[in-house]
Write a structure and sequence with these properties.
The complex is a heterodimer of chains A (about 200) and B (about 350). By secondary structure, chain A is an alpha/beta fold. Helices cover about 25% and strands about 35% of the residues of chain A. Chain A has five helices and eleven strands. Chain A is globular and about 55 Å long. Chain B is built from eleven helices and 14 strands. Chain B starts with a strand and ends in a 7-residue tail after the last helix. With about 350 residues, chain B is an alpha/beta fold. Chain B is about 35% helix and about 25% strand. Classes of the chains: A alpha/beta (about 200), B alpha/beta (about 350). Chains A and B meet through strand 4, strand 5, strand 6 and strand 7 of A and strand 7, strand 8, strand 9, strand 10 and strand 11 of B.
Chain lengths: ~200, ~350
């Protein structure tokens, strides 16, 4: 039987609302407490390294069967609409972290573009054209969008990154139509915590 | 109300699937009067279908007094010449498919001809006329939030898929030569991307410029086979990404997003050739989420604008100075390509 854990989420944690909401959906496993002293564990200890965007990307890679062959000859488009304001370097780092979670280990001929609240990064990986965008947005708009496209098939991910339990949607477009799956009617964090 | 005659320079899918069906919604204001195409069989058949005159000679159509509105749907390299001729013939309005011109010199000549004759110029960048877009833009401007990122993402199936859905197309009857002028060389990457900018990104540029009027600075450009491009750079204090790829065996996807720290503006467009309602726009801000959509397609909205202009009810929403600036934005991107694209 899984041990019930008391979790403390620091109110200054940038993912405070998202983690709190996820914990509330899993009452058999977790309960919230008001101070670190009362807690068995902190929220940060419960989640792996990375960010909600990189966790969603890793989930997508697994759920959509993105393997090494899937990464070749594609147009790979990533948009990270982040609820957290970051520095340019941190934005780029999150872009690269999401790409790494998708299996794109590095970008050849990489070109970065930065403005005060957004960055873009583009380059090539195994014959694929890769583009990643990172922009700070309001919390209710936070999302990760990914698409892998070649002439025959397009695989897309739409993953809300906020605290609501909007579904992650994975769609496969091909000549036979569109297959849409909503495998996780949970926030990305709730999924991580439930496992 | 006066009825305005329309002449079509080129009788291909754009005329048959987009404009003639849209014009057909306004029979009290508009009538197809003259069809010109270098393919005589095609011009004759389309003319007969709409009880209109037909010709293979652009001058014959342009000088037809029954033609008040000239629709220029010919290949890009003919646009400027034909637009200028229509202005010189004193037409009320020219609807030019994008791009209006392919160089700053052509653009200056068009402006001079249009201002001299008083001919109104409308460019067929249909998204810019979409009623849902314009309503949402007005709302957005009332909110006065800053934008940090402008993104266009466009994945389209073959045009023929939508043309077949839009109309029973009269196919070309003959393999024909160009109507004149130089053929565009599409061999090298710069030319391919340039043609993509002038041929497809021109739909997006008026929208980008509604949010940010500065000149673009590109950091990355790549041409996608067989048709498409990725353009990355900045415009003012915004990052800008314009991505398009076609054709493929997927559903159409054409979005424009203006993202800011406090608010976002997101549009899902109808694909080209489709007269089935407006785009869908969502504006998210501290005021809440507002969505905009309507029954009028962008093409119909474009023609309602044309009717209003030629009947004197209003001035063009996009004056020639604005059209000129939009095209200069495109040409500025094209001018930066040689330093960015590997040949």
């Amino acid at each position: 039987m899984t041990k019930h854990l008391k979790v403390y989420v620091a109110s200054d944690d940038p993912m405070f609302a998202a983690i709190q909401a996820a914990i509330l959906t899993l009452p058999a496993r977790y309960s919230l407490v008001q101070s670190a002293a009362e807690a068995d564990v902190s929220a940060q200890e419960l989640v792996p390294a990375g960010t909600p965007a990189s966790w969603a990307a890793a989930y997508f890679k697994d759920a959509a069967d993105i393997d090494e062959a899937s990464l070749s000859g594609q147009t790979i488009e990533v948009s990270i609409d982040s609820p957290i304001w970051l520095t340019t370097d941190a934005r780029l780092e999150e872009c690269l972290s999401v790409l790494a979670s998708l299996g794109v280990a590095s970008l050849e001929d990489r070109a970065d573009t930065a403005a005060s609240n957004s960055v873009l990064s583009a380059g090539y990986y195994q014959g694929s054209l890769v583009t990643a965008a990172h922009c700070t947005v309001a919390a209710e708009s936070a999302a990760l969008s990914v698409s892998f496209t070649d002439a025959n098939r397009r695989i897309t991910l739409q993953a809300p990154l906020g605290h609501t339990a909007k579904p992650i949607e994975i769609a496969v477009h091909s000549a036979t139509g569109i297959q849409i799956s909503r495998p996780v009617y949970q926030s990305v964090i709730a999924r991580l915590l439930s496992n | 109300m006066e009825k305005f005659g329309i002449g079509f320079l080129a009788a291909g899918p754009v005329a048959q699937s987009i404009h003639i069906p849209a014009v057909g919604r306004y029979p009290e204001h508009l009538a197809v009067r003259h069809i010109m195409d270098v393919d005589a069989g095609l011009a004759e058949k389309l003319g007969a279908q709409h009880r209109a005159e037909w010709t293979t000679d652009e001058d014959e159509l342009i000088n037809d007094p029954q033609v008040h509105i000239v629709v220029v749907g010919s290949p890009n390299q003919h646009h400027a010449r034909q637009v200028i001729k229509a202005c010189e013939a004193g037409k009320k309005l020219v609807l030019a498919e994008k791009p209006l011109a392919t160089s700053a010199e052509e653009l200056a000549q068009i402006r001079e001809a249009a201002e001299k004759s008083g001919t109104a110029i409308v460019v067929g960048a249909m998204h810019a006329f979409d009623t849902a877009y314009l309503q949402a833009l007005e709302y957005w401007r009332s909110l006065a939030f800053e934008v940090a990122s402008l993104e266009v993402s466009c994945y389209l199936p073959p045009n023929a898929e939508f043309v077949d859905l839009a109309t029973q197309l009269i196919a070309p009857t003959d393999s024909v030569a160009s109507v004149g002028g130089p053929r565009l060389n599409v061999v090298d990457a710069v030319t391919k991307i340039s043609n993509g900018i002038l041929g497809l990104a021109m739909h997006d540029i008026p929208l980008i410029r509604d949010f940010e009027q500065s000149q673009p600075k590109l950091d990355f450009a790549h041409g996608i086979q067989p048709f498409g491009y990725l353009l990355q750079g900045t415009v003012g204090n915004c990052t800008m990404r314009i991505l398009a790829q076609m054709p493929g065996k997927w559903e159409p996807h054409w979005t424009f997003r203006a993202l800011g720290v406090k608010a976002s503006f997101e549009i899902g467009f109808q694909p080209s050739y489709v007269l089935s309602g407006s785009a869908k726009v969502r504006v998210t801000s501290p005021e809440g989420v507002r969505e905009f959509s309507g029954q009028l397609s962008a093409y119909e909205a474009e023609w309602e604008e044309i009717i209003a202009i030629v009947s004197g009810a209003r001035q063009p929403h996009y004056p020639i100075s604005r059209i000129e600036d939009d095209l200069k934005f495109a040409l500025a991107m094209i001018g930066q390509l040689p330093g960015l694209v590997n040949q």
